[in-house]
Amino acid sequence: MYAKDAGFDTVDGGDGDDTLLSTTADGEIRLRSLQNVERIEARAPTSDQAIPKVNVYLESGQSIDLTNVELIDIHQILGESGAEIIAGSAGNDYIVGLSGNDTLNGGSGDDIISDGAGIDLSDGGDGIDTIDVSENNVAITVDLEAQRINYGSNTEVILNFENATGTSLDDTLRGDVGQHTFGRLW
Ligand SMILES: [Ca+2]
Ligand SMILES: [Ca+2]
Ligand SMILES: [Ca+2]
User: Fold this and answer.
1) Mean pLDDT, rounded, of the chain
2) Closest-approaching ligand to the CA atom of 164
3) Cα torsion at 42, 44, 50, 52 (round to 10°)?
4) What is the DSSP letter of 7?
5) Looking at beta carbons, which pairs linking 165-169 to residues 24 or more positions away fall under 8 Å?
6) Among the four residues 32, 46, 93, 125, which has the most C-beta atoms within 10 Å?
7) Which domain of life is it from (predicted)?
């Protein structure tokens, strides 16, 4: 059971089958670290309410490995301004690095990774994954074939992505259009 408070929590489930459960209407799960937890689940506060959008927030500069964690009705997994290391679950994840030089891995499933500012390393892993650069405020070149993002003088590595979502500026997309589909790049 997870009790929301202002700080970031260190959670160790120990032995047994453990679930981190959010049952508040404004669910936010704030973690410094997570160990030995098998499941993170969002539920409605009462049975007649909808399940709220619950995000997992990782403290700045920390790391989290969700490879063997089942996420149930969790909306996004978000880093902060530091360099976070986030490994997603086997399911479909939405991972947001924000600023800082982040290492973001989707793992299996059809993941969306928003890398944000900073020089990030993003890996979609197995599945049909989307690199989302729409939060950036500079025009970006996304090359899915060369597995690179370029903006200004910066180059970032993007591995195992099949789709891209661009910014509202004049982005450039390179890829094999026979294999890939592109989101709202224009
Ligand atoms: Ca970050
Ligand atoms: Ca995943
Ligand atoms: Ca992939």
Assistant:
1) 91
2) 3
3) -40
4) S
5) 165/112, 165/130, 165/131, 165/132, 165/133, 165/134, 166/133, 166/134, 166/140, 166/142, 167/133, 167/134, 167/135, 167/136, 167/137, 167/138, 167/139, 167/140, 168/134, 169/137, 169/138, 169/139, 169/140
6) 93
7) Bacteria
Give the pLDDT band of residue 186 (cuts 50, 70, 90). Answer: very low
Query: Rounded to the nearest whole angstrom, what is the distance from the C-alpha of residue 159 to the centroid of ligand 3?
Result: 8
Q: Distance between CA 70 and CA 37 in Å, rounded?
A: 9
What's the gap in Å between 40 CA and the centre of ligand 3? 24
User: How many whole angstroms from 105 Cα to the centroid of ligand 2?
Assistant: 8
Distance 104 CA to ligand 2 centre (A): 11
Nearest ligand, measured from the Cα of 131:
3
- Is the full-model pTM beyond 0.85? yes
Q: What is the distance in A from the centroid of ligand 2 to the CA of 112? A: 9
Alpha-carbon distance of 12 to 117, in angstroms, equals: 31
Ligand in nearest proximity to the CA of 90: 2
User: What's the pLDDT tens digit per position in 5-56?
Assistant: 568 999 999 999 999 999 988 889 999 999 999 999 999 999 999 999 999 9
Q: What is the pLDDT of residues 44-95, one digit of tens each?
A: 999 999 999 999 999 999 999 999 999 999 999 999 999 999 999 999 999 9
